[in-house]
Amino acid sequence: MPTPPLNIEDELKESYLNYAMSVIVSRALPDVRDGLKPSQRRILVAMRDLGLSPGGGTSKCAGIVGETMKRYHPHGDNSIYPTLARMAQWWNMRHLLITGQGNFGSIHGLPPAAMRYTEAKLSPVAAEMLEDINLDTVDFQPNYDEKYSEPRVLPGKFPNLLVNGSGGIAVGMATSIPPHNLGEVCDALVALIDDPDIDLHGLMEHLHGPDFPTGGTVCGKFGIMEAYRTGRGRITLRAKYEIEELKDGRSHIVFTEIPYQLTKETLLKKLADLVNGGRITGISAVDDHSDRKQPVRVVVTVKRGEDPNVILNQLFQYSPLQDTFSVIMLALVDGRPRTLALKEILRLYLDHRVVVIRRRTQYQLRQARQRAHVVEGLLIALHYIDEVIRVIRSSANPTEARARLMGLEVSDQILRRALDSPDAKATGPLTRNQADAILAMRLQQLTGLEADKLADEYKKLREDIARYEAILADERLIYDLIRADLRELKQKYSDARRTEISSEELGDFDKEALIREEYMVVTITNAGYIKRLPPSTYRAQGRGGRGIAATSTREGDFLEHMFVALTHDYILFFSDRGKVYWLKVYDIPEAGRTAAGRAIVNLLQLEEGERITGFLPVRQFVEDEYLMMCTRRGTVKKTELTAFKRPLGRGIIALGLDEGDELIAVGRVKAGDHVLISTRQGMAIRFDESDARAMGRTAHGVRGINLEEGDEVVGMIVAAGQDDPASLLTVCERGYGKRTALTEYRSQNRGGKGLIDIKTTDRNGPVVAIAKVTEDDEVMLTTVGGNIIRTRVGDVSLIGRNTQGVRLIRLDDDDSVSSLAKLPEEELSSANGVADAVADALAEAGVSESSPDSVAIAPPPPSPADHILNDGVGPAEASDHVDDLDADGEPDRE
């Protein structure tokens, strides 16, 4: 019957699809588990079959190619030998899989000698990849003619895919995985075992980036992070160079490392074309000074009078000395091509190793149980040797002897005596395997020494069986074995990183993508020095310890603010001119625990004479929160927090100011909060935040308090509603102050004259500053003369509003108090000090936003202190009662 005609279009589609899948699965792409293409895997297996172990001798490559082609890879020597040679070339492989002897080519571009001249054997790391292959760790499949079997994948103890990388072009897809440093890969795998939820930034703390065998310099981390995050990226790789100045005024640019997969022959030809073609005119000569000790040394001589840095930039622009490596992390996963992120590659490798170790352990358990079963029979026979000999001698042939031995009943008592095990239980008569082992016993095994060896072997087998069963019952033990293997590999084979990773980013990139989002402790001193450092710096200490210093400050300066924020959070800085500036936490310099930090004014684009007078950390610009600002002349303005979410480097207007006025305080408020404003002449007003309607950024605000002639505002705090349990600490110029419960300040209408907060007289002087405090807080008072006193708030008596207060610090006649600062918790003299404060702040940051209720804005920092006074607090002094003043509001003005 004739064959029906075929549609040529359908036939071509089907045939090409089959061809494409064959190329993808069987030729061009590596397996994610062992990182090998089929041809590479077959060569290594064939070399193992030939016994070419690392400790043995080498064999002709022609024989290796022939064995590979005969058994596994019938595609001709033209495809096998180049693959074999590449695995022996140091400039292509980060860790060689084959140890070659003879001419295997060079980085100059010379090809390997013919395979009849070269010899090879497995390298130590290749032997690691093949380890345990005979222990039923991987599946085997028939070879092309079904005469032999070949492994589908190698056990892969060595993480080859990332360490050596891979490159290949399939049909419609390609893979290009860069090599990496073995030690870093092992560390990243261990980190993933220890923390399965680790993020990319955490992995990159261990695996910094590609590490090419030819060295070079990777420009920036953005391309690396994109490749690790998505599986695709572009890495700019530059040659490593040195500039040598000559006595005759000329310069040498010496290149000692070149980009990956660039040959010197190609490089020298391109450089010659650039010079001869007039593209680069400042070069007088290009010489190759490479030798056996230094495989790459290309010397470019710069003409006299030319700038070598200009020539260098031209070389990077026009020559292969700067190249782009396209990362495509494509590999086979369960026989299907997939583009993988870094964490996926690491996880799939660990999953493979878990399967390998589990299968190996199951195989070892079967073998141990079978051997233990046989040894049990031998020990029983030795214990009852007379009976065994009688049975054997009275039997007509081995078959009868075997049957009679298998008919012997073994009781629990007999088994316990034979095995010297009180817990042994008989499972029935001797088995065929035990009977065969007894019949095969030699007479020398009847000696006492041999009997002891059998007993020791049985004991060891029982221990092994228990260990194997424990491993199979607990996957954590499997990961412990993987962790131990990785650490052993790192110790035995890892070396120093060859490729440098510079901070210079080329092209457009997202800076924030390079910064890991993690918590940081930010500290700001009274004199305006700021820094950040990891919370782990403040290690936990036992109760009763001495604590640790949070920072080392200049004389007369002290730590005033501390908070915990994420690296991507904002800090808003407010200036005396009513402007606000942004700074990301990651832009704050990271410094050591005892370092002073960097001046805030050096981090912001301030105008001439402009001062930073306050700050506010912001994690999120939420819609239901506002900023309440207060000026020295009593104006307040409430603006939605979201109005400040679009940063500009030069800052933006936070509020409009009249001439001669300045911003003195900023607080973060929400519905239900109260605002309390205090003046220099001892007046205070408290009102609900809702009394001030929300305005735009550039508005001037409304009247917050009606000031008497010559009076001015000195501070503002935010209270958590009418029942806030905190108190108000008021400090006067002559060193007096007092603490009053916030509940004593009744709520009034905004714009009134307020109530008497403290009686200001010649004795205590005008008010300098206020602070919202609790009994457990500590405060720092600074004087114009540079003296500082630190005192606990609980030592200041809680008294009424209209009093003169008590002495907080003794002053010289010509001295006065200049500022008040509430210390953050880490400055308190508790046993755990900073560590406890940071732990509390982190706990708070994990569930809600953590920011101060308000930010007291201090005057310029005092001059350095000549000495520090430690003065006690005197008794509270009586004062006359003064009636409250009625509020007298004024119309709002904008």
Report what the structure shows:
This protein is an alpha+beta fold. It has four domains: 116 residues, Topoisomerase II, domain 5; 81 residues, Gyrase A, domain 2; 123 residues, Topoisomerase, domain 3, CATH 1.10.268.10; 340 residues, DNA gyrase/topoisomerase IV, subunit A, C-terminal (Neuraminidase). It is 28% helix and 23% strand. It contains 19 helices and 41 strands. The strands form twelve sheets. A five-stranded antiparallel beta sheet has the order 31-26-25-28-41, with no helix packed on it. Strand 33 and strand 34 form a beta hairpin. Helix 14 crosses helix 16. The longest helix has 42 residues. It is extended and about 130 Å long.
User: Ranges with pLDDT <50 over ≥5 residues?
Assistant: 539-551, 826-834, 845-894
Count every beta strand, where a strand is a DSSP E run of 2 or more residues: 41
Backbone structural class: alpha+beta
**Named CATH architecture of the largest domain:** 6 Propeller
What average pLDDT do the residues reach?
82
Read across the widest sheet, the strand sequence of neighbours is 31-26-25-28-41
Sheet having the most strands: 5 strands, antiparallel
Helix content: 25-40%
Give the overall silhouette: extended
Q: For the terminal residues, how far apart are their CA atoms?
A: 100 Å
Alpha-carbon Rg, integer: 40 Å
Q: What is the fourth-level CATH superfamily of the largest domain?
A: DNA gyrase/topoisomerase IV, subunit A, C-terminal
The tally of structural domains comes to 4
What percent strand?
Answer: 15-25%
Query: Count of helical segments?
Result: 19
CATH topology annotation of the largest domain: Neuraminidase
CATH C-level of the largest domain: Mainly Beta
Catalytic activity: ATP-dependent breakage, passage and rejoining of double-stranded DNA
GO cellular component, one term: cytoplasm
GO biological process, one term: DNA topological change
Active site: 117 (o-(5'-phospho-dna)-tyrosine intermediate)
